[in-house]
Amino acid sequence: MMEYLIQENVAGAAFRLFLALICGGVLGIERGRKSRPAGLRTYMLVCVGAALVMITNEYLYRRYGTGDPARLGAQVISGIGFLGAGTIIVTVRNRVKGLTTAAGLWAAACMGLAIGAGYYTAAVISCVMIYFVMALLYRLDLRVVESARSVNLYIEFVSVRDIGEFIRYVKEQDMKITDLELIQSVGANESAAAILATIRLAKKADHAEIVRLLSQAGGVRYLEEVG
Question: Where are the alpha helices (H) located in 34-118, listed in sequence order?
Answer without folding.
Answer: 40-64, 71-86, 99-116
